[in-house]
Design a protein that fits this description.
By secondary structure, this protein is mainly alpha-helical. The protein has a domain at 2-68: Multidrug-efflux Transporter Regulator, Chain: A, Domain 2 (Orthogonal Bundle). Helices cover 43% and strands 9% of the residues. Helix 2 packs across helix 3 (30-38). The chain is elongated. The termini are far apart.
Length: 97
Amino acid sequence: MNHKVENENKLNFFHNLTQNEVAKRFRVTPSTVKNWRENGLLQYIRVPGSTRVLYPITAVEELERNSLHQKKEVIRTKEIKRERPGISPREKKDWRI
């Protein structure tokens, strides 16, 4: 029976991602993943007796689904009217040296 519990712990361990793995998956920096964690956007598990943080694959997939289905707003700027530079209407000055 003890062997079964160990296998479940190993199985649960493999269903978690590290901070770097999550960052690679979303193509962001690890500090961005940390910000998501601190803002409550991503669930995490802190390994007892360690500073290591793991992210459940289900939480990562949920964030991925939510971020893909967000309505994104496209901001269009006004078109810039481009003109060729013309010759100045002012007369040229004679410079004395």
